[in-house]
Amino acid sequence: MATPKHPNVLVICTDQQFAGAMSCAGNEYLDTPAMDRIAATGTRFTESYCAAPVCTPSRGAMLTGRMPHETGITENNDAIPEEYRDDTVGRLFEEAGYECGYAGKWHLPDSEVSPEHGFECLSGHDDDRVVDPCLDFLSRDRDAETPFMLVASFDDPHNICEYARGQNLPWGSLNEPPLEECPPLPSNHAVPPFEPETLRPEMADRHKTLGAMVDASPEEWRRYRNAYYRLVERVDARLGRLLDGLDAEGAAEETLVVFMSDHGDGNGAHQINQKWLLYEEQARVPFVVNPPGESVPSSPPEGDGGRINTDDSRTDDHLVSTGLDLLPTLCDYASITPPADLLGESVRPFVTGEDPAGWRDVLVTETFDPIEGRMVRSDRYKYIVYKRGRQREQLFDMEDDRGELVDLSVAADYDDVLDDHRRHLLEWCRKTNDLFGERHPAGAPLVPGFNLKDLQTYMDTGEEPDAIE
Question: Rounded to the nearest 5°, which phi and psi values hold at 145?
């Protein structure tokens, strides 16, 4: 039985859904009543980023609370190393007396979870068989002292990958409407000037096997965007059934509900689909926390058009890393002590309207395949650097250029801002033992602007160099 100190926990995760792909986020090209229900009485974090915009590295971070470079989970189909398994979400909650169930996609590396991770496997990687096992789990006759931890992990809208490759969709086909009914091209469809030169060749190299739409026409992009939004709506309907089941069991008010996705999708921005890169559409993800005591609203009557009013719902713009902050947040609500050496923090104070001192002012996301890179997000700016190429840096103003169309890294007026973000990254690398700050065949750091002597001084003393050369 759940108590205020040990509430039930329901984590719902979709795959490849970018932060703006919800109607509660102001997107007029889709309708997501179930996601809106969670946001209506919860807190939607508008500046939440994944640890890495690829499935397995992101999922590994969410379950361990550690960045991919810390655990070595840097590519799809990597496993959680044995040394971190005792401190993963499932094991921590199992040891705290929770009944833990996991339904759907696991991908670390197996398609379904195994008992060694602390969860009972309710179903494997099959969106058609996620909700019903979850409903059965919710309806179990539990011991009065036993709360539950349930993870419902869906594959959609990841099926947009099969759509881009012209393959059959695993969980059912979509209707193709007339072109005039498809969403328009995004306002940031153009390729930004001075884009790192290695990105397009890498995407072209993956075109045949992974469906990168490097030569797609405007019409094809519009149909892609339509299919993507219909896939989001399809998974939203499954979420709705799950939330209805939680409500029917009378457990909604005593359950913490968290909605999120592992990473985003290009969705035609900059003429990119898929993930991997560090633009907003790939790196920024939904993260909604609905606390116990604030039950998720019931499904709206059909006469209301199926919409939930989220005009008065709470949003928060602090920088959140879903990879680092999910585990501490879940532990905080469940009165579980998380591992002491984690970099993340609980977002619970923001959900209750507090503004704790000392919250991060810089957030890092990393990517490894097909080209290694790092993203540094500060309050106003976003800095991206990739491992190789003559032009490998980008700098965007997140207040004036959310679409990332004007690269300020080539503008002399922003040299100081660029240098600040380079230092932020080098400091992060030093703090977290991220080899991006020091690895290079010739010995110099991969962070631009620092030579080997600068790096050695900084790594030994922590003193910043007087000037960036």
Answer: -100, 5
CATH assignment of the domain containing 27: 3.40.720.10
Say if residue 116 is in the same domain as residue 182: yes
Q: Do 224 and 289 fall into the same domain?
A: yes
Cβ contacts of 356 within 8 Å, gap of 6 or more: 349, 350
- Whether the bond between 441 and the residue before it is cis, its omega within 30 degrees of 0, is no
Per-residue pLDDT, averaged over 416-428, amounts to 94
Dihedrals phi, psi of 45, to nearest 5 degrees = -90, 115
> Rounded to whole angstroms, how far apart are CA atoms 115 and 112?
10
Q: Residue 307 in 3-state DSSP?
A: coil
Which SS3 state, helix, strand or coil, does residue 365 take? strand
> In whole angstroms, what is the distance from residue 456 CA to residue 230 CA?
52
CA distances to 42, 109, 134 from 381, rounded to whole Å, are 27, 35, 41
d(CA 159, CA 17): 11
pTM for the structure as a whole? 0.93
Query: How big, in percent rounded to 5, are the helix, strand and coil portions of the chain?
Result: 35, 15, 50
Query: Which distant-in-sequence residues (6+ apart) come within 8 Å of 83 by Cβ?
Result: none
CB atoms near residue 265 (< 10 Å): 29
Same domain for 175 and 91? yes
Q: What sign does the dihedral 245-125-88-283 (CA atoms) show?
A: negative
DSSP one-letter code for 397: E
Residue 221, token pair as written in the block: 């992009």
Q: pLDDT tier at 294 (50, 70, 90 boundaries)?
A: confident
Residue 466 confidence (pLDDT) above 70: no
